[in-house]
Amino acid sequence: MVEELSKKLDAQILQTHTSWVLVLKEVVYKIKKPVNFGFLDYSTLEKRLENCKREVELNKRLCPWVYLGVVPISLVDGRYVIEDASNPVEYAVKMRRIPEESLLKNLLSKVSQEDMKRLAKHIAQFHLRAERRDDFGKLEVMKFNTDENFMQTEKYIGITIGKEDYEFIRRRTEYFYENYKELFEKRIRDGRIRDGHGDIRLEHVAFLKEGICIFDCIEFNERFRCGDMLNDMCFLSMELDLYGRQDLSKAYEEEYRVATEDEEFKIFLPFFKGYRAYVRGKVNSFLLDDPHYPKKEEAKKLAQKLFQLSKKYAEQIP
Question: How far apart are CA 276 and CA 41, in angstroms?
């Protein structure tokens, strides 16, 4: 289906472990793969449609100019036709194409500390007005996430993560829970648990003429999207560190700390950055098991680098 549509539309195909993306001159169609990873379930057409609708709704909070809606893909006379509702066999999220040159990942040599401060204020304002989701701030919820990470990455020991690093990160994570458990409750009381974005990364931030656009938020699992505001913002800061722009990450972090008046910022920052690096290491490791993913060696090297960064943050936990 995807190959046929790409030829018909003269579109470039990009893919992640969860989606195929058809890139045209002016628009993009994002089609969810029929996969079930446990934490993400797109296994049925109904679930894919539901998640497409949710993706559009949630992303309009931070990127209203880009998300155009959900469109059907029909099978008509043995051929797939996009934006045809006569016989839907699949659905896609339709988006305005974001210029590559506007993405933060492509602006690292040009972007300034002032730009990062502006971005930090933008994200802080979003978090402070977002819906409170106190239940997702409980230590047990965070521990479920980290336990799941360790369980799902055990098979990659010796491939993308060394056994010593795996055990060290796991020990430091448990140490954090034991020593700072009362602060999780404090942050709930202080209103720091919100319905956020879940995936604020360099490739999901664009500086458009309409304003800052942060797109591709997580729609498929509330516990990855809802949680501590600081956990949400520091995904980006971790990636800035990954690409050697600690000057930008420090400016971004400090502006966010001031804007949110976060008293526990320095305690939680290395913990959450380590969590984010580990998540990305896990996701890149998953790509090694995808028979259709073409750049496995690249994914493996990036996963190794991310797990090493996670260990570095674990060493910084106070």
Answer: 21
